[in-house]
Design goal:
Blueprint (H helix, E strand, L loop, with lengths): L2 E7 L23 H13 L4 E6 L3 H7 L4 E4 L8 H10 L5 E6 L2 E3 L2 H12 L3 E5 L9 E4 L5 E5 L9 E9 L1 H13 L6 H12 L4 E4 L5 E3 L3 H10 L1
Parallel strand pairs: 1-2, 1-4, 2-3, 6-10
Antiparallel strand pairs: 4-9, 5-11, 6-9, 7-8, 7-9
């Protein structure tokens, strides 16, 4: 499997209010969020899987915590959003499919085992939670074939089928157009905007993968961290 795993770890994480990068937030089991993610990745895809982190804020701390993975530097991490961090990673990974995740998601190891067949098939996907949908989250709808139609925070709650959890895959066949759309979007756009445009204008077919029966907690606030520690 020619796969690149990317962790978006460049942000400042100001909402959690800690003096170090959010991926280095310690969990109750002694690991950091980043270590939990990398452990899940290696459990699913093997110790030799190619992993990379996009770094920015206090990058030296992340480099020291995970010296055995590759790194890409977003030098304007304080002026851009996840669309531009992901763009840097995609440009650095050749023609391989890329499984990427936000650097603040604590998730069940079974999530990656569930999506492994889609990675092998070369099917782009977004992992979603259909059990809950909040106004401030990235929400989605689907078309008549079950592929994602809309993917943004602007999707009305009355239309949303669930919310994205921050674990995604772009297949090799879809990668070039996705890169182009990430180039075009605004500096402050999330990567979901580039994916949404690729769906709308390039007919990229992205499947929603329901992982509602498994935990995936995006740690933005102290209460999120508490919830993550309850489920790991």
């Amino acid at each position: 499997m020619d796969l690149q795993v990317v962790i978006l770890a460049a942000g400042m994480g100001t909402r959690l209010g800690q003096p170090f990068p959010k991926p280095l937030t310690p969990l109750k089991d002694g690991r950091t969020i980043l270590a939990q993610q990398l452990g899940n990745v290696r459990e699913a895809f093997g110790d030799n899987v190619q992993a990379m982190a996009v770094v920015g804020f206090k990058l030296e701390q992340i480099l020291e915590s995970a010296p055995d993975i590759a790194f890409v530097y977003n030098e304007v991490f304080d002026q851009t959003n996840t669309s531009k961090s992901l763009l840097k990673a995609l440009k650095a990974t050749g023609n391989r499919g890329v499984l990427w995740m936000n650097g603040d998601v604590v998730f069940h190891p079974e999530v990656l085992r569930r999506v492994e067949p889609l990675v092998e098939q070369g099917q782009s996907f977004v992992c979603v939670n259909t059990a809950k949908t909040a106004e401030e989250e990235v929400k989605y709808t689907v078309d008549e074939n079950g592929h994602i139609a809309a993917l943004s925070k602007q999707v009305p709650l009355t239309e949303a089928l669930g919310e994205a959890v921050g674990i995604n895959f772009i297949a090799p066949a879809d990668k070039a157009v996705f890169i182009q759309r990430l180039i075009e979007v605004d500096e402050q756009d999330y990567f979901e905007r580039g994916l949404e445009i690729a769906i709308e204008q390039d007919n990229v077919q992205v499947l929603p993968v329901d992982i509602s029966d498994l935990y995936a907690v995006e740690v933005d606030f102290a209460e999120d961290l508490a919830r993550a520690n309850e489920v790991i």
